[in-house]
Design a protein that fits this description.
Blueprint: H1 10-31, E1 32-36, H2 42-60, H3 64-69, H4 73-76, H5 80-88, H6 90-93, E2 97-100, E3 104-108, E4 114-121, E5 124-125, E6 128-129, E7 134-141, E8 144-154, E9 159-168, E10 171-181, H7 189-202, H8 205-219, E11 225-226, H9 228-237, E12 252-256, E13 259-271, E14 274-282, H10 289-306, E15 316-322, E16 328-334
Parallel strand pairs: 14-15
Antiparallel strand pairs: 1-3, 2-8, 3-8, 4-7, 5-6, 7-11, 8-9, 9-10, 12-13, 13-14, 15-16
Length: 339
């Protein structure tokens, strides 16, 4: 005789669902956790802060040997990026004293690298982030304890100097160094934000989008760090993202001179006191520089012809043909010379 099946009580199903959600949340919490300066014990906070200040002084003095000596092994074997950062930004940090921001302590549990680690730091409310919170997104992060230490370099050319530290034994070793000027072409994030809103009001939406992008670059010391300020800027500008500009891995076609060029990225870049527009496109071969130069000029003229509003916002345009290997060749054309 068959036994009639009985439906599982709704309350039991709900309880199981809640337990599953709590279990999943616990796994996430165990994998990635973050403490703000206020959450850390005094000893840890002091150790992280003093190490960051010490490494800052090394960077300011151009003491690459000491930085390398205090780096994690994987960084020691590939130190060229640190050398380039310190050397290329010498003028922004030379002779400066670092003002320490509240640090963050990140802990990644497990036995293997986390493909996409996300650390939620501080207090969040119904609107998202608050004044002292932050979110860090790091890919391929090995298990371990890390600290993010950010210092403001007070000099004639202001900049932020950020360190990723990794705990090894009782020491905090250098795992990453990022130096970012807080101004571009002589202007700060607020200036670009004001002009982005002005371009938006005028209906110059491509200029508005690009100026929002520049403001976003300047407002955060790290590209993988989000704060309440960056979230607000992203929310304000997201709807303006042009469909006829490349985004992420999506290319856009630009017909010019009987050919179609696939644009891969368009972004602003400051060179001294000038703000230029950079456009990259796919190229099969850039070894013939004369031919590539002609292609670059063609792309520049076609881009400005398609979006004439760009003349109001940029001093020049740089087009770069990029081979599949990553090798590229660029050409700068002043906007006044784009006919």
């Amino acid at each position: 005789m068959s036994r009639a099946s009985h439906p599982r009580p709704a309350s039991l199903c709900l309880s199981l669902s809640v337990l599953l959600l709590l279990s999943t949340a616990a796994v996430v919490a165990r994998a990635e956790s973050c403490k703000t300066a206020d959450d850390m014990d005094a000893t840890t906070r002091a150790a992280i802060s003093s190490t960051g200040q010490r490494y800052f002084d090394m960077a300011v003095n151009g003491d690459l040997a000491s930085l390398r000596q205090n780096a994690i092994p994987s960084l020691v074997s590939n130190f060229s990026g640190i050398e380039a950062a310190v050397t290329s930004h010498k003028s922004e940090i030379a002779g400066s004293h670092g003002t320490l921001r509240p640090p963050f302590l990140l802990e990644a549990d497990g036995s293997s690298p986390i493909a996409h680690a996300e650390f939620l730091c501080g207090v969040f409310n119904q609107h998202g982030q608050t004044a002292n919170s932050a979110v860090f997104n790091l890919d391929g992060l090995p298990a371990g304890k890390y600290a993010v230490v950010i210092l403001d370099a007070a000099s004639s050319n202001r900049a932020t100097v950020s360190f990723i530290l990794q705990q090894q034994g009782n020491d905090w070793k250098l795992g990453g160094l990022y130096i970012k000027p807080v101004q571009a072409a002589g202007h700060d994030a607020d200036w670009f934000l004001t002009h982005a809103r002005d371009y938006k009001t005028k209906g110059q939406l491509h200029n508005a989008w690009l100026y929002y992008r520049q403001a976003l670059i300047l407002i955060s010391p790290l590209s993988f760090m989000k704060t309440a300020a960056t979230d607000k800027l992203i929310d304000e500008s997201q709807a303006l993202q042009p469909s006829d500009f490349p985004a992420d891995s999506r290319t856009v076609d630009l017909p010019a001179g009987g050919l179609t060029y696939k644009l891969t990225i368009v972004f602003p870049e400051a060179v001294g006191n000038d703000l230029d527009l950079i456009v990259k496109y796919q190229a099969s071969d850039v070894s013939d520089t004369t031919r590539t130069y002609q292609s670059n000029v063609t792309v520049i003229k076609a881009l400005v012809a398609k979006f004439p509003e760009l003349k109001n916002a940029f001093v020049g345009v740089v087009a770069r043909g990029v081979e599949p290997s990553g090798r590229d060749y660029g050409t700068l054309l002043a906007m006044k010379d784009v006919k």
